[in-house]
Specification:
The chain is an all-alpha fold. The chain has a domain at 12-176. 72% of the residues lie in helices and 1% in strands. The chain is built from 25 helices and two strands. The protein has helices at residues 2-7, 9-29, 34-53, 58-73, 79-95, 107-136, 139-143, 160-168, 181-189, 192-195, 198-206, 209-222, 231-234, 238-270, 291-295, 299-303, 317-322, 326-332, 335-346, 355-367, 371-377, 380-395, 400-427, 430-439, 443-480; strands at residues 275-276, 307-308. Strands 1-2 form a two-stranded antiparallel ribbon. The chain starts with a helix and ends with a helix. Keywords: Acyltransferase, Membrane, Transferase, Transmembrane, Transmembrane helix.
Length: 481
């Protein structure tokens, strides 16, 4: 028992802090004034940072403070660019601190720094994006109601103190989820958190956490990561070595599910991210329809509304386990961060053909500089190229048993691909990745290439034959008439 606690002490401390944040939520939600609530949330956030990081707390505190000052010191036209390069520049320094004579920080501090980067850069892009949207808005777009809101429907321009509170508020500080400044501001000024069933949402979110933790402990002890680097593993049957990453990725998923679910529960408990369901709320973004009408909702209407916490949902666990394609899997995995990458990088990158590469590159360096992150994340497009072809040719329009069979095959291949890539993500360094991939002869890259080449040939075959079939049908129709 003592050995288990010693081995997992960091995870136990982190888990305890997340659970404490959940417990604090109802008390925090009930605070009487907005100013008291803001300062209490910020103080709790700073306490969490210092508790987790010790002396290394200087990094997230200093980087966020300078990033906030950069936003205010820059013009609204360029604040997002200045802040982006500063925050990611500091992230480089933070992770390479030992090269500059400083000690490296813990993994937990790294997670906090990652969240700080998302918040500070995200709010800078919100400020700039809202300014651009309002500047370019035409009168007819104001008069005509749209089915869906634009990304920005009003100016977002927080003052220095609100930027400070947003950056350091304890909700979501340890593991996420990322939420916009707009969501944070709504939490204090709109009546939704007072009327939503926060307790029910918290219990509903938390109920699966013991299962995730139990499965993680079981998988990680039966199939430990380090085993893939041993001679004993290399002497096992090739099928065993090929399938071992399934166990590694299964353990990793349970750990992520537990952490992300607990992080969502912190939001649920405090009431942050609660919006009426008619807003068609989306992870990270919040309401996508009729936001300005929601802001004008009366106390009585708010009291009688039905609420959800979709805005702060990070993981669609069932989706992660069941979706057929890698493309869909990417959409339901860590959805809040996916939203940030899409809004900050993909949509705003000026060179259209390089958008996806820019998004993947930023995602990689946000996670870290290890080779494993590049192997895992940057190889996704190569699999997607092949997958998209087979999806359109055979699965998209299939029905009945045929669709089920093809869906299972695609699910298996997607799961195997993710597991193979996850092995690199977990092993991190190039030498360790090379040991495992060599033990299975780097086979999956060859499989990808063969799938892609066959897919291209099949796609070309279908294209060349489709017009002939169409012409023959037309001729038959004319003859019949």
């Amino acid at each position: 028992m003592i050995g288990f606690i010693t081995k997992n002490i960091n995870d136990i401390i982190y888990l305890s802090l997340l659970l404490s944040s959940v417990v604090v939520g109802p008390y925090y939600r009930s605070l009487s004034t907005i100013l008291l609530k803001k300062w209490t949330g910020t103080l709790l956030g700073l306490i969490l940072i210092v508790t987790v990081s010790g002396y290394s707390a200087i990094h997230p505190i200093l980087s966020a403070t300078i990033g906030i000052l950069a936003i205010k010191a820059s013009t609204v036209r360029f604040c997002h660019i200045v802040t982006f390069f500063f925050m990611f520049g500091y992230l480089f320094f933070f992770r390479l601190a030992d090269k500059f004579g400083f000690s490296l920080s813990s993994g937990q501090t790294n997670l906090i720094e990652m969240i700080i980067v998302l918040r500070v850069v995200g709010v800078a892009f919100e400020i700039n994006g809202s300014w651009l949207a309002m500047k370019n808005k035409k009168e007819e777009s104001i008069k005509n109601e749209k089915e869906k809101d634009d990304d920005f429907v009003e100016i977002i321009n927080p003052d220095l103190s609100d930027l400070f509170h947003y950056s350091f508020n304890y909700i979501g500080l340890l593991t996420g989820p990322y939420y916009r400044y707009r969501t944070f501001d709504d939490y204090f000024y709109l009546p939704f958190s007072k009327n939503a069933d926060c307790f029910g949402a918290t219990i509903n979110t938390l109920k699966a956490v013991p299962l995730y933790i139990s499965l993680y402990l079981a998988f990680s002890n039966i199939w430990p990561l380090e085993y893939v680097l041993t001679e004993e593993h290399n002497s096992r049957h090739i099928i065993y070595r090929m399938l071992y990453p399934w166990a590694l990725f299964a353990a990793f998923r349970q750990r992520i599910y537990a952490g992300m679910t607990l992080a969502e529960s912190v939001c649920n408990s405090a009431g942050l991210g609660a919006y009426p369901v008619q807003g068609r709320n989306r992870t990270g973004h919040g309401p996508t329809v009729g936001y300005m009408k929601l802001k004008q909702m009366s106390e009585e209407e708010a009291k009688n509304s039905l609420y959800d916490f979709n805005t702060v949902e990070s993981m669609d666990v069932w989706g992660c386990e069941s979706v057929v394609t890698l493309r869909d899997s990417m959409k339901v995995w860590n959805k809040a961060v996916q939203y940030w990458v899409a809004m900050v990088v993909y949509k705003r990158f000026p060179i259209k053909p390089l958008k996806i590469h820019a998004a993947l590159f930023i995602s990689v360096i946000w996670h870290g500089f290890h080779a494993g992150y590049f192997f895992c994340i940057y190889f996704c497009p190569f699999y997607l190229m092949a997958e998209d072809i087979y999806y359109k040719l055979y699965y998209k329009n299939a029905t009945g048993m045929k669709r089920n069979v093809i869906g299972f095959v695609m699910w298996f291949l997607r799961s195997h691909s993710e597991s193979y890539q996850a092995a690199a993500f977990l092993l991190l360094t190039f030498d360790r990745i090379w040991i495992y991939y060599s033990s299975v002869y780097h086979y999956w890259y060859g499989v990808w290439l063969v799938f892609l080449l066959i897919g291209i040939a099949l796609n070309q075959f279908h294209k060349t034959n489709r017009p002939k079939i169409s012409t023959e049908k037309n001729v038959d129709q004319i003859k019949t008439e």
